[in-house]
Amino acid sequence: MKTKISIFAIIVAAILAIAAIPFPELSKPEKSVKQTTDGFSFIRTHRQGKGATTTWAFVSDNVSGFTVQRTYEDPSDPYAFWEAVCNTNCNSSRSYKYTDENLLPGFINYRVVALMNDGSTICSDLSSIRIQSR
Fold first, then answer.
1. Which of 2, 86, 125, 133 has the most CB atoms at less than 10 Å from its CB?
2. H, E, C per residue of 19-81
3. CB 121 within 8 A of CB 39
4. Do 107 and 86 form a contact (C-beta atoms < 8 A)?
5. 47-102 pLDDT, tens digit each
6. CB neighbours of 47 closer than 8 A, spacing ≥ 6?
7. Which domains does the chain show, CATH number per domain?
8. Rounded CA gap, 50 and 28, in Å?
């Protein structure tokens, strides 16, 4: 009986000793982690006079320009027509703005397509606005 208790005590002591060992990767956050993913920080659209202003920010050094697109159709429809309303180059501030003055009443959905240096594109989330009348 004493040997069973001794073995049990040794096992419990070993488990407690292992549990007390700190794991550096769990206890200290990485300070040198750099965000390497390219993407949109945000996209917003609001009414501006008789038009709509879309603002967005993009995190990347690998982007060459942007295309702002709009549709009056259901944006989830794969056959919806997206009209390119603005093309713009990059700037150093990484935040951008476009005001669309030529609007018809209704629900308008905007998206921004980032044109990357390698030829690929990244599409933003949708930003919607409702214009009731001109």
1. 86
2. HCCCCHHHHCCCCCCCCCCCEEEEEEEEEECCEEEEEEEEECCCEEEEEEEEECCCCCCCCCC
3. no
4. no
5. 888 889 999 999 888 899 999 999 999 999 999 999 999 999 888 878 899 999 87
6. 53, 129, 131
7. 39-131 (2.60.40.10)
8. 53
In contact, 89 and 98? CB cutoff 8 Å: no
- 11: pLDDT confidence band, cut at 50, 70 and 90? confident
- Give the integer Cα–Cα distance in Å for 116 and 120: 5
pLDDT value, residue 34: 39
36 has a pLDDT exceeding 70: no
Taking the CA atoms of residue 110, residue 123, residue 95 and residue 69 in that order, the dihedral angle to the nearest 10 degrees is -30
pTM: 0.69
Token pair for 10: 């040794």
132 token code pair: 């009731």
Distance CA 109, CA 72 (A): 6
Which sign, positive or negative, has the C-alpha torsion 30, 32, 33, 35? positive
